[in-house]
Amino acid sequence: MSFLDLANPSRFLTLAARLLPWLAAITIALLAAGLYMSATAPDDYQQGATVKIMFIHVPNAWLSMFVWGIMSVASLGTLVWRHPLADVAAKAAAPIGASFTFLALVTGSLWGRPMWGTYWEWDARLTSVLILFLMYLGLIALWRAVEDPSRAARAAAVLTLVGAINLPIIKFSVDWWNTLHQPASVMRMGGSTLDNAFLIPLLVMAIAFSFLFVTLHVAAMRNEILRRRVRSLQMQQARGYASDIPAGTAPNAAQSQIAGAA
Amino acid sequence: MIDLGPYASFIATSYLAALLVVVLLIGWIALDYRAQKARLRALEQSGISRRSGRSATEIR
After folding, report:
1. Do A48 and B7 touch (CB under 8 A)?
2. A152 near B48, Cβ under 8 Å?
3. Are residues A53 and B48, on separate chains, in Cβ contact within 8 Å?
4. What average pLDDT score do residues B37-57 get?
């Protein structure tokens, strides 16, 4: 099966049915390993045991941006190549990305209280991630507000690409502005500043959450394809009812208005 | 038992929040899948079929 074959939703559904059990099994195994390594990781000499929050905060923060990146590529697929699954991929990813962003904010807040003395600070990193979360919610609302999926797809794709401007702002906010949030310590020039005792559990958890995203995304895409089939069949059913009504017997708009006024 | 120190409640709440959100996501996706399959089955039983003639609920 070539990559282009996946443009066919039916072939995608077949592939999804085969892949999902394997993806779920790999995700469970990686999460179990990551949680075990997180639980047995040593305390940090400054932060103590609160360093364990990092093992779920950082993967969720990375994924919050990565998912928007995936949605941006899918939006290009919608606008430029009109790929049949591009909009399905973007729409299915949005609630998952919003969940990861929500978790990044919540766990960051819970980490900030004991370390910084506050749950929240309107600094550049925290505020730009909050804006990302609000953009996810806005996109989900847009998809729900527009009934025709193809019209919603184009509007959502433009909004997603405009929103992608926020990704470098989030990434470099800690370098461009004086923030309470620490600068990058893993993905930085000159390599990670983390000791392997923390870096390895963090990377395992990041890979585990990435597999969790892929698993949930494939399952959500499958649901979205089925939802569009339902819509298509319902429209077919409505057309069938309309053609069954003999000409001249259906109330026209003017008659309905008169009946309403009376 | 792991000693989480004086900030145990913050650590435990973080992990529980992550667990709750992930369980809700999985549950929502699983329920949505069942709902879409049920709606497709109901439509097919009412005599509506896809133009290709293939079953809309048939995936494998």
Report:
1. yes
2. no
3. no
4. 79
